[in-house]
């Protein structure tokens, strides 16, 4: 089966979006989360801007403005990046808890709520060039994460949360929304973890005589 997941161009190369929701793809901006050595893909606030821009959640003008703002205050930009990574970990744990019908950790929920408060509610709809778009909160370095938080809130409060899954490959740690009819998707991507698992099985068959 051919897969054609969209990818986002980051400083370290392209990153696939296999999650099926912006918030899950955000969690997947670190690879091999459960392995000995995780693979960080967000190396700077610029990567964060590029990633959100790549999801289509912000336009090029906003991306440029936020990148310029980060350049003007690099210390603050680094802090926001560090906090965004902590949010990413809290979201990972909270998504998994929710998908197993368990209560999330209070500290994680507190962190998510602090971010939600900072990125502000969607105040309304604006008509721009004939198209409707969400009215954006005040443009701060943190507001860049607004689309991630809106997506997370919707996922965590909706019925789809039961379909959030962790890739079956040991160590991978990527999460995705299983939209398959039988709800039997195992891998983040057949091309990556799926094929590796297949190759391993094949190797074992050949060597276990
Ligand atoms: Zn995987």
Tally of separate helices: 7
Please tell me the total number of domains.
Answer: 1
CATH level-4 homologous superfamily: Jann2411-like domain
Beta-strand content estimate: 5-15%
The mean pLDDT is 92
Q: In terms of structural class, how would the helical and strand content be classed?
A: alpha+beta
CA radius of gyration: 18 Å
Q: What is the helix content?
A: 40-55%
Number of strands: 8
**Top-tier CATH class:** Mainly Alpha
State the low-pLDDT regions, or none.
none
**List of distinct ligands in this structure:** zinc ion
- Biggest pleated-sheet summary: 2 strands, antiparallel
Written account of the structure:
The chain has 209 residues and is an alpha+beta fold. It has one domain (7-207): Jann2411-like fold (Orthogonal Bundle), CATH 1.10.3300.10. 47% of the residues lie in helices and 12% in strands. It has helices spanning 22-27, 45-54, 60-72, 74-99, 106-119, 146-157, 190-207; strands at 7-10, 13-16, 30-31, 39-40, 125-128, 131-134, 164-166, 175-177. It has a two-stranded antiparallel sheet with strand order 1-2. A two-stranded antiparallel sheet has the order 3-4. Helix 2 packs antiparallel against helix 3 (60-72), helix 3 (60-72) crosses helix 4 and helix 4 (74-99) packs across helix 5 (106-119). The longest helix is centred in the middle third of the chain and has 26 residues, at 74-99. The protein is globular.
